[in-house]
Design a protein that fits this description.
It contains 6 helices and no strands. It is an all-alpha fold. The protein has one domain (5-196). The chain starts with a helix and ends in a 6-residue tail after the last helix.
């Protein structure tokens, strides 16, 4: 296992973020072909790309005078992207489980509050937040108070990225050494499942 896995992840997130924002022609097409040789690198790229799509869709749906039909379309898109994000995160954890297969935890091994992939999920979101916060520093339609506030927030975001990166690498090292237990935490999302969401399974069937 790469002892600096967080650095690899951040590098891939940065590539995805730049790819996404350099493509000015919608609909944006995921160009992650460069990572198809590595399962985990492709998963990390696709994870970030999905988060970026959801981020900007969440922006769009908050337009004050949005058409209700358009808002419904965007809400359905957000649900789809959130489910895809969840599936990719669980696939990353499957990768980790395979990597750590055969490692026997020590007797005093502990459980972590979240799996490695869900920690990396938070790291990805922080990287996207930092990118968009940095954008605010280059606006010419705001005053110095706005710029100063965003600089302070960006400082905190970068500190959080640094702290979480160290925690991710420490967690992976602890699992590798048997000090922590590798376990996948399934989200068990119900709202998209027609067998589990009562609004869906109680709806009149179309024949």
């Amino acid at each position: 296992m790469n002892p600096n896995f967080s650095s690899l992840a951040i590098s891939i997130f940065s590539t995805a973020i730049n790819d996404y924002h350099n493509d000015a022609t919608p609909p944006k097409v995921n160009p992650g072909a460069r990572y198809r040789h590595s399962k985990v690198e492709k998963l990390l790229y696709d994870k970030c790309w999905t988060d970026l799509e959801q981020w900007h869709t969440e922006d769009d749906i908050r337009l004050p005078e949005i058409n209700p039909q358009r808002a419904l379309e965007l809400k359905r898109q957000i649900d789809r992207l959130n489910q895809l994000r969840n599936d990719i995160v669980e696939s990353i954890d499957e990768y980790f489980r395979h990597q750590f297969e055969g490692i026997v935890p020590v007797n005093y091994a502990e459980m972590n509050t979240e799996s490695p992939a869900w920690a990396i999920d938070r790291l990805c979101i922080l990287c996207i937040k930092a990118f968009h916060m940095n954008e605010q520093l280059h606006r010419n339609d705001v005053d110095i108070l706005h710029i100063t506030s965003c600089k302070n927030k960006l400082f905190v975001l970068n500190e959080q990225i640094s702290d979480l990166s160290k925690s991710v690498d420490k967690l992976l090292a602890d699992i590798q050494n048997g000090f922590k237990v590798m376990k996948i935490y399934r989200q068990m999302k119900m709202y998209n499942n027609p067998d589990l969401n009562p609004v869906l399974y109680k709806a009149p069937k179309a024949y």
